[in-house]
Design brief:
The protein starts with 23 loop residues before the first strand and ends in an 11-residue tail after the last helix. By secondary structure, the chain is an alpha+beta fold. The protein has 3 helices and 4 strands, in the order βββααβα. A two-stranded antiparallel ribbon has the order 1-2. It has a two-stranded antiparallel sheet with strand order 3-4.
Length: 95
């Protein structure tokens, strides 16, 4: 018999997947988990994902810009946190 074969599965998600070491998935055992370092994304990609304009993206994420003034680049994980937070508007509800 040959040795155990190795397979790689790539999962992209906003939150970490619920997979544990030693877990049996599809007849195989999970031996290693690695988080791949995310590359920086442009304002255009974020605008497409969150359905916002590129100017809005640049204004909201000015504090985490890692590119130049002309080419704005952002860490997608930090950008997600900033772009998905909701601001409460109006006066509080009276019960």
């Amino acid at each position: 018999m040959m040795g155990a074969l190795k397979y790689t599965i790539t999962i992209e998600s906003d939150s970490p997947p619920q997979v544990m070491l030693g877990q049996n998935i599809g007849g195989g055992i999970v031996k290693e988990l690695k988080e791949v370092e995310m590359e920086l994304v442009s304002a255009a990609k974020l605008a497409e994902k969150y359905n916002l304009s590129t100017t809005t993206i640049r204004e909201r994420l000015a504090s985490i810009n890692q590119g130049t003034q002309g080419k704005c680049l952002y860490n997608p994980r930090l950008a997600h946190g900033i772009l998905t937070t909701k601001n409460k508007r109006g006066r509080p509800r009276a019960n």
